[in-house]
Model the fold of this input.
Amino acid sequence: MLDGTCQECPVGFWDDNCSRVCQYPNFGINCLQTCQCIKRLCDNIRGCPDNITTNNPHSRKNSSVVNGQMTVTTFKTSLETMAEKKEIKSKKKSGSNKNTVFLAITAVLALIVIIIASLEVFIGRKQRIGERYVVESHNL
Done:
């Protein structure tokens, strides 16, 4: 939370107001990556120096070959994957909202038709019962 709005913390920091530095052995965005070097060498933002490996258990590795010689490796964090899934779900929900509104309107209209039909039957029955008990007066 920065300036009263929810925002992602800067790389290497975490907590509600992004005031806490990632604790060893964690580093990076939301402190999700893990250093594989000693505490003294692990940086809260970049992790271990380039000649020492780091580990991100929350990532999915994607590799591709460039010019047939060099392999470029990128990582997609679980947070990025979750954000993509939420975006897909929200797109699906917007379509289902239209269906929900349509069904609700149809149900309300059907209920109104049933109420009107019931009233007509009730009023018609009352009139027929009233006609049976009309007694004509006869003069003697």
Residues 78-132 form the longest helix (55 residues). The longest strand covers residues 59-66. Residues 13-83 form one domain. The helical segments are 78-132.
